[in-house]
UniProtKB/TrEMBL annotation:
This is DUF7054 domain-containing protein. It comes from Corchorus capsularis. InterPro entries: At4g22758-like, DUF7054. Transmembrane segments: none annotated. It holds the Pfam family DUF7054. The lineage of its organism: Eukaryota, Viridiplantae, Streptophyta, Embryophyta, Tracheophyta. Residues 14-96 form the DUF7054 domain.
Length: 137
């Protein structure tokens, strides 16, 4: 009963939004309702849980710190985890894994982290996919 009252009060605070989150490499977007005042970090967490519950592939993991949320209509920068999801007025987002870095040691000294090849952003992945489709025709 207490949980029900809390949820009811939360929905009274702000507007609720139906959002779509596309995961790179997955068959289709995940859709769910969020409060517009919810933080991006919480939305990423909800998306990962929903993705896993649906048994989607590829398996992503559950650490929200390993992911970035993009709004394709707002530019190429990832959203800040402390930003509210409704701040951009957008409903469609893209979830990507953060690029992994590998440390290379030279003479026993750790050097600067170097990003792995092929760990580009979502725009590079889309362009690559489109080029494959065009060249196969």
């Amino acid at each position: 009963m207490l949980l029900y009252k809390q949820k009811k009060n939360q929905s009274a605070k702000g507007n609720r939004l139906l959002i779509s989150i596309t995961v790179l490499g997955s068959a289709g977007p995940i859709r769910f309702v969020v409060n517009e005042e919810e933080l991006v970090a919480a939305v990423i967490d909800t998306a990962l849980k929903s993705y896993a519950r649906e048994g989607r592939l590829p398996v992503l993991g559950s650490d929200l710190n390993d992911f970035l949320l993009y709004c394709p209509s707002a530019g190429s920068d990832a959203l800040s985890p402390w930003e509210t999801i409704g701040s951009l007025g957008a409903r469609n987002f893209m979830l990507c894994k953060k690029p992994k870095t590998e440390k290379i040691e030279d003479d026993g000294r750790p050097t600067e982290a170097i990003p792995r090849k092929g760990s580009g952003n979502w725009k590079a992945w889309i362009n690559k996919s489109l080029n494959l489709k065009i060249s196969s025709h």
